[in-house]
Amino acid sequence: MHKYIKVAAGVIALMALVPTAASAVTGGREGAGAACTSDGNEPTGRLLAKRIEKDINEALRGRDSVASVALYDRKTGIACAYDENRQQDAASVIKPVILGALLFHSKGPLTGEDDTLARKMITASDNAAATTLWKKLSDLTNPSAPNPVKIQEFLDAAGMKNTILDKEGFWGLSQVTAADQLQLLKVFTDNSDTGAPVLPQEARAYALDLMNHVQSDQRWGAPAGAPQNAVVHVKNGWLRRSNNPGVDPYDRLDWKVNSMAAFTGDDYDYGLVVLTENNRVPDGHPAESGWIYGIGTIEGVARAVHHDLFPEQSSSRRLQLTPQNLVKQLKLQPHQPR
């Protein structure tokens, strides 16, 4: 199990990262905005879609994070997207993809060894377990560059067309999109009685159960503000790497922070994915402040979405994005990328 360190008092210096005034820049892109639709003709559905669209844009306005967002709600037929096909480093949100591929090829219950590895990979975000399963699902003709052919077969079956798997064994550098990760959540939560599901019911239930038992200090992000009676299935990921022009890709002051979650139970059936990058650490600030800033961006979107969908049940309308509030929420800081 990876180590954690306590939040340093210096993290309060993150205040300088929080914009003091809204700008015309939404999620790091000029003139861009979320778009939400409803699959019904009822005015209430269209009005709700417009409200969610407005509030996602409001949550992203003024944030330095470059974000992509994807949302579905099967009950209302509402879908939202914001730069949903932009590719970025997966970090640990590739782990549910590995799990899906493992279940896709198992043709039945997992072996004891595979079950142990899968549980470690999802609930504790164990990197060694993920590497072992990645290799198991790869062509090892060249052991130094595993070719994840079986994972690709799962992506093809699941309709995840824009995910690019890393071919050199660095699974966290696979390129994912919010739209594809949302499609994965749809595969895991598919309860339709028609057609041929990608995964059998037992496999879907297993995947959701593991994501429901992610350890408590990794349950931030997309679940923030969710209805308290919803069953939450979450996986997060983070690493320090830069895609900015003129910046070393392994610049340790640039964070990718990602979160994906499905919400079920008590008539809930929706999913949310928020991927972020460009969570820069200003000179003189603690390295972890970029991680916290990315979480703040994700949770701003999440709280808006949950409240708009379920104003009576959501746990809060909006938590003001201050360093003090985020530190109070998170308690611990990650010591290693996940």
Automatic annotation (TrEMBL):
Residue stretches making up the Beta-lactamase class A catalytic domain: 116-243
Pfam families named in the record: Beta-lactamase2
Organism domain of life: Bacteria
Keyword annotations of the record: Signal
Coiled coil: none
Signal peptide, first to last residue: 1-24
Signal found in the keyword field: yes
One example GO MF annotation: beta-lactamase activity
GO biological process terms held by the UniProt record: beta-lactam antibiotic catabolic process; response to antibiotic
Protein name: Beta-lactamase class A catalytic domain-containing protein
